[in-house]
Here is the input.
Amino acid sequence: MLVASQEKQRYTIADYEAFIALPEHEDRRFELIDGEMIEVSPKLRHGQATLRLSSRIHVWLMDHPIGIVAVEVDHQMPNDPNNARRPDISYISNERLRDADPDETLPFMPDLAVEIKSPSNSVKGIRGLREKALYYLENGSRLVWLIYPDRQSAEACSRSAEGAIQFVPLGKDDSLDGGDVLPGFSIALSAVLGGR
Here is the structure.
């Protein structure tokens, strides 16, 4: 008896770029994750948390001009044809920006990547966000913050001195600390999550 294959079609960066360039996709947002086209559809709580955190980092960077912060910027590793990642928030140091074209997809992962769970993350949930964090850290990010507004919590993800990847759980009374990526930056998680 033959069993039909349930394997999903895998797409490349070229497929992805052609797909998102279609007029019918002009107002939609997608990521390419391990060859799978994923549409992202953030909701109000997600948007508010993104704004609160990115604006605080932006203001801090005005006094400490060591890089830039951006929202929903495409990053793609040149040797990986199956991934075009779009963190909710990216912090990129000045050193890494030197050779980057601001009008093109960035050919590296951000120094700090932030992912904020939204209802569109419901298929893989926390596991999916942790997989994203691993990808970022394995490809050059130094720090990843995963924020879970529905749980009023977060995780700070980084490599230990020995190279092991660690996920540090944070409650709403804890703070997100920039460590050696954003030295001196800190924000209470409750300020990012806000009300509602």
